Amino acid sequence: MCSTSTLPTELIQLQLSHFDMLESLFLPGEFTPSQQTTALQATLAHTLDSPSVSMPPAASFDCTVLVPLDPPPNALPGTYAFQLFISLPLSDPPPPLQLTLRQPSWLLRSSHQSLSNSLASLTAEEDPTTVVLAALELLRDVGAALIPVLEDEADGGVAEDECRVWFWLQSLSTRQKRDDMVKWAAGFGLTGFVMAGQS
What we know:
By secondary structure, this protein is an alpha+beta fold. It has helices at residues 9-23, 35-44, 109-122, 128-146, 151-154, 175-187; strands at 5-8, 31-33, 52-55, 60-68, 81-89, 98-102. It is rod-shaped, with a radius of gyration of 31 Å. It has 6 helices and 6 strands. Helix 3 runs antiparallel to helix 4. The strands form 2 sheets. Strands 2-4-5-6 form a 4-stranded antiparallel beta sheet. A two-stranded antiparallel ribbon has the order 1-3. It folds into 2 domains: 5-152, Ubiquitin Conjugating Enzyme (Roll), CATH 3.10.110; 161-199, no CATH class.
């Protein structure tokens, strides 16, 4: 049998207003409430006239938001964004807002853990909107620097075009011709050796 808790309507309305404010921060398609939250909102629409409301245990307003990132010019091809799970618990007194960052495939585990720790430190702030705004700023600023980039440009070098060079020597039978080959190879950054009679 599932127990319920009775919460002041004023508290629920406050959390609901916070949730509506969070939704207004995002573009269409970036904010997705959970199915449980959608059902809970529909139920509360008919019960908020009472001084108190019976709520299921561990009730909360939950959503997943998409945080698009601006990749640097030398980023590897792909779409880069974070998925952030936000939960507003419904209890009296209400605990801090909860943030959970889903690890994308392109992000290293150590970087994900560092970001998650930074997000956890933000939740000490009481106002949910302030917390989410700070989280979005953190993810966009730090996340862009974590996007994988092309290796040649990541080291500060400039990618060079490759080319193929042919040396046509009819014969390597004389020492002088072999010496010439060695000298030319150095100028083209070639290594190895060649012997007369070898193809």
